[in-house]
């Protein structure tokens, strides 16, 4: 129990994972801005263009991979002890490479526009003939390309152990999306104007970061080409390639569904899917901080030979996160329509209940998947993680295309759940147990047992209550449904799954109370 308590205390105190407390603050503020911003965009620009904006963000996610993993490579290379001049060289060459990539993509975009590639691009997106969406795409790509050089400067703060400025600028980038909307709303501008305002403010922040970096950290002249070093540039690109390969399936897996939905079901369903995933994944993002925090110390503890510490942290964290995740998902499942109405103040969003039900199974698997991935990556077992990530991605895409034709938008949720449960949920812990004798595959299966023996019956109970008993949707009936569902989930988790998570949670609370 002390393992988990110490980790949680370190997270709270901000001493774990390079000032994780500022990461928590950035996450809270970013999510708060998103919670406010998305319904405003939906109601001001309409369901169709909100869906188009969501789809174009997906396209930009793919194009963002053209940064070649340079920011991640810069982070890793900076961990090697370097003289001050070499640090500056590393930062300068990373910035130079990202500017080159940005300029290259800008030229490519101009060439496509010159040769009237608009028709083919819109046809590929499934929105042929809508010139506004093409203009929105151009503006969004301009925002993306302007951010490429900024990534190198933000990463540079971490090199000099200045996490706070980096997080502050991250928060500013989220804040300007809301500020841009306020300007747009006051001036009654279009969604294309909204994105161009974001672009302009991004440029302001870029120069702000540049001058802040020069003034407070190092007086570096970024226009001094004597810093260019072909060997440094080659090292950065080589290191970035590995991160690009590792991040590709993750990026595609999170965003490919919007393209499939747009092609088969239209932009309105893209908007519905966006809100369905947000009400489940925003709360989970806070739970995932535990796995993110552990990632940076697993390798360190392994080098010290603290295998029992690693195993205990994995086990207790997995049990608690799975239990808490189950409660949150059941809450979202029961009160989803109330949450959406309260959030959006609109009747535009209509979430398919079967989609939401399928997505809960997908999100329920994430604590196990992310815990295992963090441990494998922390122990430098990247090949296995990459291999199964690509298998999951392939299965996900194939199932999504097949099931969306058979089941509509609910098929996307089913595909996500099946691909996640069938591949990383089962196989990543199996890899860990085969490589490390101190890792117990049996302990990792607690989450899997909870999925089928306690969470599934609770979800089934919600479905039965909503479909046959409390069809009128009165709020008091929803409270009865929620209390019944979490009771079933808790009892079955404790009795059938032999889960110590509840006892661990009570003990942690008791120890914290005595400490006060």
SSE order, one letter for each helix or strand? HHHHHHHHHHHHHHHHHHHHHH
What distance separates the N and C termini? 17 Å
- How big is the Rg? 24 Å
- Largest beta sheet, briefly? none
Mean pLDDT: 78
Strand % is: under 5%
Question: Count the strands?
Answer: 0
Q: Count helical runs.
A: 22
Considering DSSP H and I runs of 4 or more, what fraction of the residues is helical? over 70%
Q: What structural category arises from helix and sheet content?
A: mainly alpha
Poorly predicted tracts of residues: 7-18
Q: So what's the overall shape?
A: globular
Description:
The chain has 516 residues and is mainly α. It has a domain at 19-239. It contains 22 helices and no strands. The protein has helices at 2-13, 20-45, 47-63, 70-77, 84-114, 118-125, 131-159, 163-187, 191-216, 230-264, 267-287, 289-303, 307-334, 336-344, 353-364, 366-378, 382-407, 410-422, 424-435, 441-469, 475-495, 501-515. Helix 10 packs parallel to helix 17 (382-407). The longest helix is centred in the middle third of the chain and has 35 residues, at 230-264. The radius of gyration is 24 Å and the shape is globular.
Summarize the structure.
This protein has 516 residues and is mostly helical.
Give the helix/strand layout.
Blueprint: H1 2-13, H2 20-45, H3 47-63, H4 70-77, H5 84-114, H6 118-125, H7 131-159, H8 163-187, H9 191-216, H10 230-264, H11 267-287, H12 289-303, H13 307-334, H14 336-344, H15 353-364, H16 366-378, H17 382-407, H18 410-422, H19 424-435, H20 441-469, H21 475-495, H22 501-515
């Amino acid at each position: 129990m002390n393992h988990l308590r110490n980790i949680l205390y370190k997270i709270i105190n901000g001493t774990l994972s390079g000032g994780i407390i500022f990461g928590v603050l950035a996450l809270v503020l970013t999510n708060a801005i998103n919670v406010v911003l998305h319904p405003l965009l939906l109601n001001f620009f309409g369901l169709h263009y909100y869906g188009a904006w969501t789809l174009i963000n997906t396209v930009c996610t793919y194009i963002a991979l053209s940064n070649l993993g340079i920011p991640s490579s810069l982070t890793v290379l900076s961990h090697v002890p370097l003289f001050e001049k070499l640090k500056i060289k590393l930062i300068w060459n990373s910035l130079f490479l990202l500017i080159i990539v940005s300029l290259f993509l800008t030229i490519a975009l101009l060439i496509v526009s010159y040769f009237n590639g608009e028709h083919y691009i819109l046809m590929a997106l499934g929105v042929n003939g809508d010139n506004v969406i093409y203009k929105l795409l151009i503006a969004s790509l301009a925002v993306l390309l302007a951010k490429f050089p900024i990534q190198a400067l933000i990463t540079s703060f971490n090199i000099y152990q200045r996490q706070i400025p980096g997080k502050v600028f991250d928060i500013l980038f989220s804040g300007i999306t809301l500020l841009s909307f306020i300007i747009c709303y006051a001036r009654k501008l279009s969604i294309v104007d909204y994105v161009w305002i974001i672009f302009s403010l991004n440029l302001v922040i870029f120069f702000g970061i540049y001058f802040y970096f020069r003034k407070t950290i190092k007086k570096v002249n970024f226009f001094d080409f004597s810093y260019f070093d072909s060997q440094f540039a080659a090292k950065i690109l080589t290191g970035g390639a590995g991160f690009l390969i590792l991040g590709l399936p993750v990026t595609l897996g999170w965003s490919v569904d919007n393209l499939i939905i747009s092609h088969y079901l239209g932009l309105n369903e893209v908007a519905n899917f966006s809100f369905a995933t947000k009400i489940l994944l925003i709360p989970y993002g806070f739970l995932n901080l535990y796995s993110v925090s552990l990632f940076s110390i697993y390798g360190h503890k392994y080098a010290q030979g603290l295998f029992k510490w690693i195993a205990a942290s994995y086990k207790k964290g997995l049990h608690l996160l799975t239990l808490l995740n189950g409660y949150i998902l059941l809450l979202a499942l029961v009160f989803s329509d109330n949450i959406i109405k309260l959030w959006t103040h609109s009747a535009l969003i209509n979430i398919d209940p079967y989609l939401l039900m399928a997505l809960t199974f997908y999100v329920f698997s994430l604590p196990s998947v992310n815990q295992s991935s963090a441990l494998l990556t922390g122990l430098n077992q990247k090949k296995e993680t990459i291999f199964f990530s690509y298998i999951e991605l392939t299965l996900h895409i194939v199932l999504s295309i097949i099931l969306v034709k058979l089941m509509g938008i609910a098929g996307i949720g089913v595909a996500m759940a099946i691909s996640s449960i069938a591949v990383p949920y089962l196989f990543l812990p199996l890899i860990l147990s085969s490589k490390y004798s101190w890792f117990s595959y049996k302990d990792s299966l607690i989450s899997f047992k909870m999925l089928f023996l306690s969470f599934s019956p609770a979800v089934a109970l919600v479905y039965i209550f909503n479909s046959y008993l409390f069809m009128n949707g009165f709020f008091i009936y929803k409270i009865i449904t929620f209390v019944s569902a979490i009771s079933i989930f808790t009892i079955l988790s404790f009795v059938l799954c032999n889960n110590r998570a509840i006892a661990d949670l009570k003990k942690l609370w008791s120890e914290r109370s005595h400490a006060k």
